[in-house]
């Protein structure tokens, strides 16, 4: 599995297709996060933006091998493992992006709530930010996995479904990503840091279920 | 679509799959290679170390030929240094050593196919699946692939192939299966046809030793003068047969080596006219 992940990661890095989603995310964070804003607000914003970007990255990784090359790797380790390695590579890339964004936000933001007299400790805020980012990345990976090969083979359907599902995952109240982000934003008003542990666990379970389903289907549906 | 297919893949076997276009040969090979799973029924047994060569491998991947092969070698479970060595030697064997540093998208179709063949062979797989793997290769590389297949079979692997050329490995195939409708029928193997060049090897074993069992290419053997044995085998298998004789325990001694034309090419003649000079073995 290590060799396979190394291959997929090298493939992603060299293909330069990661540039578009990474630049989009950098622009999103660059516009929305200004130095001196309340830290929890900015963390929530950065986490929310990670969800659609993760879905995009995961789909890039799933689709980056031409069919002939994919059959060659699938014969060695099996189609499910090839698919799992793609999902993990996309998620890993999004994870790095999330950690980097969280660190930048922690460095440049004001460690208070909206009310400048309420102090917010950076360590719990950072942990909450990482958990929220992880929550959004996992849910984004689930959306990305469910809205492409092997479930949706047509490119048009895949793109529309991904955009819609990513949007719903961010705005629907009750979704783990929405709960985690709302928790941070509310915390900015009250000055209380909520650690989104439960949403993170739920998002991880959803991502694992999506991965299990799509990896199983990967060997059943030939194109 | 295929139904009711029952196929056994014993070790040390070369299997040919035939069928008209669009009957599902590639589907069957993909099932055997473990790329796809059957929607009904199952494939039993431990999953062997498998390698697959697709038809027309033109991979627009951002690697050099050698870089891709090293990645694939590692996925096959080789260490990096081992993968690098084998990638280099297989590219050289197939006549593509000069393209090791060429990016894959810039390779010609034939050289891309050599990369696909190299990735499969460098892993020394237990199960090798070749889907028209010869298509696009030059003559030298085709012959080399035939020899490599014979070597894999001699080393105990199972090789399953599809090829549009009915003479491909004709002298060495152990079993032929034909796809008719949605089923798979066993067809008679045409090993006895004896087309193509054959090689005659005169060898002598230690006094009283019997010929080693399971020799590559199952050669015909007749007693020769002064206690030796004369073995005749399809040229594809000659290297593997020599290796098997020389590395047997105890080893055999090679006395003479000669190419003989295939039976079909020289019907009913005594004393083949095209006999090449027989080099003396060391």
Helices and strands in order, then pairings?
The complex is a heterodimer of chains A (223) and B (282).
Chain A: H1 2-15, H2 19-32, H3 39-63, H4 67-77, H5 79-108, H6 122-146, H7 155-171, H8 176-190, H9 197-218
Chain B: E1 13-18, H1 25-32, E2 50-53, H2 65-75, H3 80-93, H4 109-121, E3 127-131, H5 139-154, E4 158-162, E5 175-180, E6 183-187, E7 198-204, E8 220-223, E9 229-234, H6 235-246, E10 253-260
Parallel strand pairs in B: 1-4, 1-5, 2-3, 3-4
Antiparallel strand pairs in B: 5-6, 7-9, 7-10, 8-9
Helix pairs in contact in B: 2-3, 2-4, 5-6
Could you give a quick summary of the protein structure above?
The complex is a heterodimer of chains A (223) and B (282). With 223 residues, chain A is an all-alpha fold. Chain A contains 9 helices and no strands.
What does this protein look like?
The complex is a heterodimer of chains A (223) and B (282). With 223 residues, chain A is mainly alpha-helical. Chain A has helices spanning 2-15, 19-32, 39-63, 67-77, 79-108, 122-146, 155-171, 176-190, 197-218. Chain A has one domain (1-222). Chain A is built from nine helices and no strands. In chain A, helix 4 (67-77) crosses helix 5 (79-108) and helix 6 (122-146) runs parallel beside helix 9. By secondary structure, chain B is of the alpha/beta class. In chain B, the strands form two sheets. In chain B, strands 2-3-4-1-5-6 form a six-stranded mixed β-sheet, with helices on both faces. In chain B, strands 8-9-7-10 form a four-stranded antiparallel β-sheet. In chain B, helix 5 (139-154) links the parallel strand 3 (127-131) and strand 4. The termini of chain B are far apart. Residues 264-282 of chain B have low confidence and may be disordered. Chains A and B meet through helix 1 and helix 4 of A and strand 2, helix 2 and helix 4 of B.
